From TrEMBL:
One of its GO terms (molecular function) is pseudouridine synthase activity. GO terms for biological process: maturation of LSU-rRNA from tetracistronic rRNA transcript (SSU-rRNA, LSU-rRNA, 4.5S-rRNA, 5S-rRNA); maturation of SSU-rRNA from tetracistronic rRNA transcript (SSU-rRNA, LSU-rRNA, 4.5S-rRNA, 5S-rRNA); plastid translation; pseudouridine synthesis. It comes from Rubroshorea leprosula. The keyword Electron transport does not apply. Keywords: Isomerase. One of its GO terms (cellular component) is chloroplast. It holds the Pfam family PseudoU_synth_2. InterPro entries: PsdUridine_s_RsuA/RluB/E/F_cat (IPR042092), PsdUridine_synth_cat_dom_sf (IPR020103), PsdUridine_synth_RsuA/RluA (IPR006145), RsuA_PseudoU_synthase (IPR050343), TruA/RsuA/RluB/E/F_N (IPR020094). Residues 28-170 form the Pseudouridine synthase RsuA/RluA-like domain. This is Pseudouridine synthase RsuA/RluA-like domain-containing protein.
Length: 215
């Protein structure tokens, strides 16, 4: 049978170890994920994105004396080759809300393409493809204006399904090859343009509301 407890007043033991009464505050961070990092742990050949928060944990005790360090985890995932916005938190309710398909949160990606992009490619992407048994179609896809310093064409693709490798599968099914992929926006919150790769920023309440969080 389940037993409801209050960690702030009850004495709780897990596997013989007593849980601290003081709980860490809720933490909400936006990371500009570099290539080569994974969103989980246990795979020795890749580093975890949580390794990028080493300085955050080092300064925790000084800023929060007597309060245990938060256990950070990612909200959803980006594959090892994809860069850009990744939300990291210790708030399970927040993570579940943002990750659940019912949230219908739009996510914007910039895909740099190897080769030439033709009109039919855009049509094919717009038609969607089957991913994990579901037919997924993007909210929008457009060829971005050419820039003199960029040799490869770029596509702006917005999706809301959140299926595994969704953008990569949409582009592949259209007959194109992705050179690089970056997530730029979740909901109404856009990755800050001055946030360097591997760097993170603490989210404000207005940022959380822009992603549909009302907690």
């Amino acid at each position: 049978m389940q037993t409801r407890v209050d960690p702030s007043t009850d004495i709780i033991y897990v596997n013989g170890s007593r849980l601290p009464k003081k709980l860490p505050p809720k933490v909400y961070l936006a990371l500009n994920k570099p290539k080569g990092y994974i969103c989980s742990s246990g795979e020795k050949e890749f580093k975890s994105v949580i390794d990028l928060f080493e300085d955050f944990f080092k300064g925790w005790d000084k800023k929060n004396p007597g309060i245990p360090k938060p256990r950070l985890f990612t909200v959803g995932r980006l594959d090892v080759a994809t860069t850009g916005m990744l939300i990291v938190t210790n708030d399970g309710d927040f993570a579940q809300k943002l990750s659940h398909p019912s949230s219908m949160l739009k996510k914007e990606y910039i895909a740099v393409i190897d080769g030439v992009v033709k009109t039919q490619h855009l049509v094919n992407i717009s038609k969607g493809t089957v991913i994990e048994g579901m037919h997924c179609t993007p909210d929008s896809v457009e060829l971005m204006p050419r820039q003199p310093d960029l040799k490869r064409p770029r596509l702006r693709i917005v999706v809301h399904e959140g299926r595994n490798h969704e953008v990569r599968e949409l582009v592949k099914n259209a007959g194109l090859e992705i050179h690089s992929l970056k997530r730029m926006r979740i909901g109404g919150f856009r990755l800050p343009s001055d946030l360097g790769l591997g760097k993170y920023v603490e989210l404000k309440q207005s940022d959380l509301r822009a992603m549909g969080w009302k907690g």
